[in-house]
């Protein structure tokens, strides 16, 4: 070997040794920094000041979720009134035409339904040992309709506890089951509130049995009603054996009496024993007392209810009537007594400095800031971003880092939301919820103060299942139309907009017909754009069922620099029908890394245009394991196009299939209509998974194709004298029946031919 070459090799070896040792040094210093950071964090946590501990113990972040029309908004209105946030009560669809505070959107007031979740806050002075203890409650009222499920999802993602409202007559209804599933998904402890005790046929104990049997969580009453229906007067607190009455024109005065009505004494003892027995099943301390045949003290019962509720094993049940202004205050006491404060809930983030290891966030003001933007809303003053502060505090004027975009943003204004009004604050503490102005981000982005490389898992966003074409009636409205589309998309991740390749029509997709109807209506009201819409369509998907190899060469020579790219590999189904996957197994640099990135882009783009009917693909995996480049003619674009070509050529050979959305459908109706409902379901090729027959109602759980469910609500109403109801939630995609696939392909070919003629 020539001397020069030896010298060169030595020096390059030296350089790489230096690089290796530099790398080790960097890694060590990074690890040291991470260790130091963790140590600092632990020290702060261990030395938590009593004031901070006290502040946290008095914060509750709760949501109210329930089946449609259970009285969430009506109950929230009372909460706001009794806590002094509003000075008069207005009803949902009330005669005064004002509408409830939390239904601030004109459309909500008109239809009497909640469309958007609304946040508010209040302070509840709870009597503890004869003193008023102030609790700060951040509260989110969520919609009941499944079409607005994202509002419930994102609320639950950031809340620490919930009040699940049930109707005293209807008990557990189809949407209660959905809400229950969502609460389980986010490990949300809950208390249950049985509302409408003033209604004819109110039976809270039937509702409790249904929570036990249908939702399969231990539930027991902590109150019993005094009177029922029109004679409903108040409740008896079973733990302390005290009667609680509401007095004053709007039930604002609470009278507590040691005297229990004589006719209720036995029931109090019976239900108190039932509460202790149920607790014994879920709490060791009570189990021991129960086995020793001792009676737990009220303090022991309360502590056990709290432990069991927070550990998700139990739900204490309160009852009342929001409309009749009864027993809302004891429910607020239960929120403070049994739902966790922010420091009692485990919130995790991923530490990017430690290979995304999970780290616990602790709601202390003195720790570095970590918060999650969970909801965006356009307001008159610009974009409003709702943030849940997980740790650290946020001050007006402070700079935050968006962990996803790595952009630094200044927070010019912080507000606390009170439905559609806001109250400006200069600082917000750990564990709280606020909204900020002037932050450009997406829903689900994590913010830090730059000190911590943390990101948080975002919420579950269900896929849209229904779509329709839409266009403004007048061309002059095009600007407002696209403005509205942009805004709706940014605010609601379940609402998507795209332009169809073939028809060039704008297509909006969402969670159901009502969801899309509401946006069309909002477009008219808020943007003055009248729209023409097409028939609702199911959002199909495409996939493959077989593995097929490809070897595709793109070579174009048109004078000057040409295009050259060769890609080899295979297309196959992924193990589970999930996101598409792209893998590269290229050895020896047959295709350089940067061109492989272009191949990935080509693959991603191709997956938005399935081979059969041009719908998005899922469950498709493409692997590139070899290829070739040309010294001058290869480029990113050539490799992107070559991948698209390979995809187009190979997909039709890989057993392509059209998939349709299958829906988890729950139907409840009086038992006598069972036959009619099953008949309806059979006609729609539904698969019945479970039927629960109660004394009065039947609940049927089944899988149905969305396609077969158009018009179902009208037919169900007809088949059940208007008494049946159902909810549908997207479950998964499955191959569409062959005749539907054939029809869809034929229609697609026809549309293509028509387009070619033009
Ligand atoms: N009898 C009786 N009716 C009630 C009670 N609470 C609410 N309602 C009525 O039930 C209807 C629905 O009440 P809302 O408060 O809008 O129910 P919601 O759960 O917020 O409704 P969505 O958000 O649309 O699901 C209204 O007509 C209320 O007046 C109650 O305690 N007793």
Task: Tell me about this structure.
With 758 residues, the chain is an alpha+beta fold. It has 18 helices and 38 strands. The strands form eight sheets. It has an eight-stranded antiparallel β-sheet. The protein binds guanosine-5'-triphosphate (GTP). Residues 66, 68-74, 91-93, 112-114, 143-144, 195-196, 198-199, 321-324 line the site of guanosine-5'-triphosphate.
Task: Name some characteristics of this structure.
alpha+beta, mitochondrion, elongation factor, translation elongation factor activity, binds guanosine-5'-triphosphate, eight-stranded antiparallel beta sheet, seven-stranded mixed beta sheet, Ribsml_uS5_D2-typ_fold_subgr, 758 residues
Bound molecules: guanosine-5'-triphosphate
Secondary structure class reads alpha+beta
Largest sheet: 8 strands, antiparallel
Distance between the termini: 71 Å
- Beta-strand segment tally: 38
Approximate strand percentage: 25-35%
GO molecular function, one term: GTPase activity
Main location: mitochondrion
Keywords: Elongation factor, GTP-binding, Mitochondrion, Nucleotide-binding, Protein biosynthesis, Transit peptide
Organism: Gomphillus americanus
Could you give a quick summary of the protein structure above?
Helix content is 33%, strand content 30%.
Topology at a glance:
Layout: H1 3-46, H2 50-57, E1 59-66, H3 72-82, H4 106-111, E2 118-128, E3 131-141, H5 149-158, E4 161-167, H6 174-185, E5 190-195, H7 204-215, E6 218-221, E7 223-226, E8 234-237, E9 242-247, E10 253-257, H8 265-282, H9 284-291, H10 298-310, E11 314-319, H11 328-338, E12 347-351, E13 357-361, E14 370-379, E15 382-391, E16 394-395, E17 399-402, E18 408-410, E19 414-418, E20 421-425, E21 427-428, E22 433-437, E23 446-448, E24 454-455, E25 466-472, H12 478-491, E26 496-499, E27 506-510, H13 513-527, E28 531-533, E29 537-538, E30 541-543, E31 548-556, E32 563-573, E33 581-584, H14 593-606, E34 620-628, H15 636-650, E35 657-670, H16 674-683, E36 687-693, E37 697-705, H17 712-719, E38 725-735, H18 738-757
Parallel strand pairs: 1-3, 1-4, 4-5, 5-11, 6-11, 33-34
Antiparallel strand pairs: 2-3, 7-8, 8-9, 9-10, 12-13, 12-24, 14-15, 14-23, 15-22, 16-21, 17-18, 17-23, 19-20, 19-22, 25-27, 25-28, 25-29, 26-27, 30-35, 31-32, 32-34, 35-37, 35-38, 36-37
The protein binds guanosine-5'-triphosphate.
Main location: mitochondrion
GO molecular function: GTP binding; GTPase activity; translation elongation factor activity
InterPro entries: EFG_II, EFG_III, EFG_III/V, EFG_V-like, EFTu-like_2, G_TR_CS, P-loop_NTPase, Ribosomal_Su5_D2-typ_SF
